[in-house]
């Protein structure tokens, strides 16, 4: 049915964990992209394949252009290594293999773009590079999201009293993008490529706020905690408050005082009354 009827593919599936094992990251983000391309080559009515990448795939560059960048990594060899090398040895070799790439997520997404580049000779491909995707701006309603990734997880953890301290620079301004705007951009990009004559060029589009409305981590945290005063979460275990610090020493002191010791005391009380520790 897919081969006979599908004309547009939105390839959005990926693991977005930065600490994923190299094997799992390559399987989920790189080999899966190859699998989609192999399927797409057999589709009789395909007019466009949209691959969702990331703005941060070229994080070593001060300015990233809407183009495919060459890389010293070979996606075919990377998949072969992930499939053939045992887990223990691969964990030892991961840091050496990645070189200056900050994490396995970035590496796997760089490799995935190379997969799309190679298959573009036979497929009509588009790459969308969103920045940090967060809750919706409007559709289906303001603030909707279906996961706890990134800043959303931090805000929910702080609002429920779970995240008491956080190690970060509170003045950092990150590039957040509402998920509904990302989806609209993907649909427009698909339409634009769909009405073009067939060619072997990969269209690359960035989808980021680019400083339209700059909000620091401190501002976002304060706004989020302020909202919980009027609209509190259910099952809050402590007053909503998160202390952000970029000092290692202060962070570990706060972690001990606000996380570890209270957790030990709470679990001790639960055990005394015969309840299951949290």
Outline of the structure:
This protein is α/β, with parallel strands linked by helices and 278 residues long. The protein has helices at 2-5, 22-41, 75-84, 87-98, 104-119, 150-159, 179-194, 217-230, 248-272; strands spanning 8-11, 48-52, 125-130, 132-134, 165-167, 176-178, 203-207, 243-245. The mean pLDDT is 90.
Plain-language structure description:
- By secondary structure, the protein is an alpha/beta fold.
- It is built from nine helices and eight strands.
- The strands form three sheets. Strands 1-2-3-7 form a four-stranded parallel beta sheet, with helices on both faces.
- The longest helix has 25 residues, at 248-272.
Number of strands: 8
Report the radius of gyration as a whole number of Å. Answer: 22 Å
Distance between the termini: 47 Å
* Strand order in space, largest sheet: 1-2-3-7
Binned strand content = 5-15%
How much helical structure, as a percent, in the residues?
40-55%
**In terms of structural class, how would the helical and strand content be classed?**
alpha/beta
Low-confidence stretches: none
Largest sheet: 4 strands, parallel
Mean of residue pLDDT? 90
Order of helix and strand elements from N to C terminus: HEHEHHHEEHEEHEHEH
How many helical stretches?
9
| Coarse shape | globular
Topology:
Blueprint (H helix, E strand, L loop, with lengths): L1 H4 L2 E4 L10 H20 L6 E5 L22 H10 L2 H12 L5 H16 L5 E6 L1 E3 L15 H10 L5 E3 L8 E3 H16 L8 E5 L9 H14 L12 E3 L2 H25 L6
Helix pairs in contact: 2-3, 2-5
Output the keywords:
4-stranded parallel β-sheet; 8 strands; 9 helices; two-stranded parallel sheet; 46% helix; 278 residues; alpha/beta
């Amino acid at each position: 049915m897919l081969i006979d009827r599908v004309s547009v593919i939105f390839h959005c599936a990926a693991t977005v964990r930065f600490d994923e094992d190299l094997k799992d990251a390559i399987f989920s983000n790189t080999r899966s992209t190859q699998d989609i391309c192999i399927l797409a080559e057999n589709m009789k009515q395909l007019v466009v394949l949209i691959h969702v990448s990331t703005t941060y795939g070229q994080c070593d560059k001060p300015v990233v252009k809407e183009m495919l960048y060459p890389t010293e990594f070979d996606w075919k060899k990377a998949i072969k290594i992930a499939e053939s090398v045992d887990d223990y040895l691969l964990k030892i070799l991961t840091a050496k293999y990645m070189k200056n790439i900050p994490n396995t997520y970035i590496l796997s997404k760089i490799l995935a773009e190379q997969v799309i580049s190679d298959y573009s000779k036979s497929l009509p491909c588009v790459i969308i590079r969103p920045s940090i995707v967060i809750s919706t701006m409007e559709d289906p309603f303001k603030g909707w999201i279906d996961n706890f990734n990134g800043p959303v997880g931090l805000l929910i953890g702080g609002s429920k009293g779970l995240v008491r301290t956080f190690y970060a620079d509170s003045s950092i301004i990150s590039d957040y993008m509402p998920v509904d705007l990302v989806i609209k951009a993907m649909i427009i990009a698909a339409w634009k490529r769909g009405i073009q004559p067939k060619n072997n060029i990969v269209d690359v589009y960035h989808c980021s706020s680019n400083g339209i409305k700059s909000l620091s981590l401190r501002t976002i945290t304060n706004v989020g905690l302020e909202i919980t005063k009027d609209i509190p979460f259910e099952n809050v275990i402590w007053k909503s408050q998160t202390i952000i610090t970029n000092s290692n020493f202060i962070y570990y002191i706060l972690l001990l005082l606000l996380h570890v010791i209270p957790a030990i005391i709470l679990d001790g009380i639960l055990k005394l009354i015969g309840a299951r520790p949290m």
